[in-house]
Amino acid sequence: MREFERISREAHQQLGEPSASWLRAQRNQLRRAFSPAARPEPGYRRWALGVALLLTGTVCVVVWLVAPKPAQVRPAAGERVLNAPSGDRRVTLADGSSLSLSALSLARVSTASDSTRCVVEVGNVRFDVAPQKGRLFTVIAGAFEIRVVGTRFRVTRDAAGVVEVHVDHGVVRVKAPNRNAPIELEAGDRLRGDDSGISVTHPAPSSSPAAAESATPNLDPQSLAPDARKASAAAPPSDWRALYRERKYAAALASARQLGVEHLLDSLDARVLSDLADTARLAGDSDLALRTFASVERRFPGTPRARDALFLSGRIHATRGQAAAARTRFEQYLALNSHGSYAIEATGRLVELYAAGGDPRAKSIAKTYLELAPDGPYQRLCRSVLSAP
Prior knowledge:
The termini are far apart. The chain has helices spanning 2-15, 20-34, 42-66, 209-214, 226-233, 240-245, 249-259, 261-267, 270-282, 286-299, 304-319, 323-336, 343-356, 361-372, 379-387, and strands at residues 79-83, 89-92, 98-101, 106-111, 115-128, 136-141, 144-148, 152-157, 163-169, 171-175, 183-186, 190-194, 197-201. Helices cover 47% and strands 20% of the residues.
């Protein structure tokens, strides 16, 4: 009996659920075959029943032949196929990282001495990546590539090829189709997209007066430097900031360009310049984002916005793989703002960069980080660096 149940389950997975209209047509056909009006004589009744059964069997065979079959995943050399056919499943890898697959999810994992690579074929997979010195952890989902050092995040890929990345803790970098630079996501951020486009969602901002002020629609003349307000009054209103708040970053950047990038860099105040830099970064123009942060530093030296620009530009350099430039910016930020809002993250990123380059200074910075944030997102990496010979 169990063998019949197994065959039944497999047939159900292959064929799927028949449509309601098909089932209704089959029921009506059987009713007609067995109704008294359709039984003028026994021979005809047997013939009608035979035809009905033959038609039903023929339809089932045709449906089985044309129905899409589940993808057959064959592991490559050194790969391990992970699935969760009937319920959630948690798998711990040799490097200490773990994967939690939701029911009906499918993934492939391969490991090497310096890297781990996971391909999410379909479903939902939650990752808890253990940071290790010099080790790369990469997740592939369709056309998207996610790189991490140590963090928790979820990757979902549905049957239509739509990919979602949710960051629970830490930072991940996503290479997306048609983008010339990776997109950096932090805790609370969510990316959703496919080959045709992407959208990025940030955590809801607080309802503080400062947040309300930053949500002022369009290009407020008061956000311009005094010497540019007159020129702004004669200009048509721009909706680039409204588009930015709606997370339509490519459209927001295109709208800002219509106003003239050079004009904006020389006229906007530090707060709105920071929004412009974020717009450029999320729209994939990291060069413009760096130019915008440089404008903040040049025009508003010594201000909190200028110090934040040091750190935020360092983030972009790190995303672009420009380790030396990133280290310089993080060090400059900490020298000016050792207790600032980004101080802990800047310290953790320095540990990451120095450890990746084999620099012995990583140990002393790791010790500082653990003193500042013993439970912070980089604490595993710091403990790993300190325990290394």
